[in-house]
Specification:
Layout lengths: L8 H12 L2 E2 H11 L8 H13 L3 E6 L2 E6 L1 H9 L1 H49 L10 H32 L6 H21 L3
Antiparallel strand pairs: 1-3, 2-3
């Protein structure tokens, strides 16, 4: 994925965030992570030097509030934000594209996981069907009930693996500041319902 901010864009975006309200450094870093949908989590070594440069240019001021240093935009900074409104619109559009890409990745992960789950369930159902069509052996521990329990363990493992994969992906996405839309959850719910119906049909239910 290309860089979220092109050369000079981060400087302007920091100014725009301070144009909304005064912020301390960590708040700015958190706002950048939130606004980029988790695609960009800046370090202190990235943000603070740019803030120092903006201060040198007279575009921001800083005041110490307890243990925090709060940055505020100056009139000159507001003038630059206003003069570069078109550039800011382009940056915002790029951020929206980044968030859409993340949402698409989540949907793709859900679809891939569902395909894998359906394949595992179908294979288990086919194997169960073949086992049921054969005469049950008379040896101890080899009857159809034992084989069914073995296949049930496989099905449980497949379902648990799918749950862990999707849950981890969704939690990581949200933890990084990404947006989890209702449409993604609706798609996941539909896919789970489809898989449940497919499993029931495969078992003759």
């Amino acid at each position: 994925m290309p860089p979220v901010f092109s050369h000079g864009d981060l400087r302007l975006y920091l100014l725009s965030l301070l144009d909304e309200e005064p912020r301390h450094g960590y708040d700015l870093m958190q706002a950048l992570a939130d606004r980029t949908g988790g695609t960009y989590t800046p370090s202190a070594g990235t943000v603070y030097p740019r803030l120092a440069k903006l201060e040198e240019e007279g575009l921001v001021t800083k005041t110490v509030d307890g243990r925090k240093t709060v940055y505020a935009i100056t009139d000159a900074g507001r003038a630059e934000v206003a003069a570069r409104a078109g550039d800011l619109e382009g940056i915002e559009a790029g951020l929206a594209d980044s968030i859409r890409l993340i949402a698409d990745d989540v949907r793709s992960s859900v679809r891939d996981a569902m395909k894998s789950l359906r394949a595992d369930l179908a294979a288990a159902a086919q194997q169960e069907g073949r086992a049921a069509s054969r005469p049950a052996p008379s040896g101890p521990g080899e009857d159809a009930r034992v084989r069914s329990r073995q296949q049930l363990q496989r099905a449980d493992a497949a379902v648990n693996a799918f749950r862990a994969q999707v849950r981890t992906g969704l939690r990581t996405h949200v933890a990084r500041g990404g947006e989890l839309t209702a449409s993604v959850v609706d798609e996941l719910t539909r896919a789970l319902d489809d898989a449940a119906r497919a499993a029931t049909r495969g078992l003759g239910g």
